[in-house]
């Protein structure tokens, strides 16, 4: 999917403690960038659409899958645009996609994604995603696959 299909973006600057002796950003750091982007995405969408049930009280989510493909390295002080979108929503889980673009070249240097599960904070069991979340994401995103089973 192309960057034009991503409506959410955060900016990360590669910091000294994220690079190795050659000045290359460590591959595991991208998962931190993805986490920052996911959290900011959910915070922003919650504000935009005033979702009251989601992520309040006993509502919580946990990562159950992470993936990343690295296309080109990045280095100390590089400015990165992290684009994020929700690709699908199921009954109690949803999937994110990320693109990492090097700001000065506008080249996509990494892709990634992950799946989170909506859980009850106390029981640690999966719980259904509220309808207001489906509605908010569908208003915000253009291409989201809804996979609800009965």
Describe, in plain words, how this protein is organized in 3D:
The chain is an alpha+beta fold and 150 residues long. The chain has a single domain (3-146), classed as Hotdog Thioesterase (Thiol Ester Dehydrase, Chain A). The chain is built from two helices and six strands. It has helices spanning 29-49, 131-140; strands spanning 8-13, 59-70, 79-89, 93-102, 107-120, 145-146. Strands 1, 2, 3, 4, 5 and 6 form a six-stranded mixed sheet that branches. Strand 4 and strand 5 form a beta hairpin. Helix 1 (29-49) packs across helix 2 (131-140). The mean pLDDT is 92.
**Structural class estimated from helices and strands:** alpha+beta
Shape: globular
Name of the CATH architecture: Roll
- Quick one: how many beta strands? 6
First-last Cα distance: 29 Å
The CATH superfamily title: Hotdog Thioesterase
Q: Tell me, what is the CATH class? A: Alpha Beta
Helix content: 10-25%
Q: Assembly type of the shown chains?
A: single chain
CATH topology: Thiol Ester Dehydrase, Chain A
Q: Please, how many domains?
A: 1
Rg result: 16 Å
State mean pLDDT (0 to 100 scale). Answer: 92
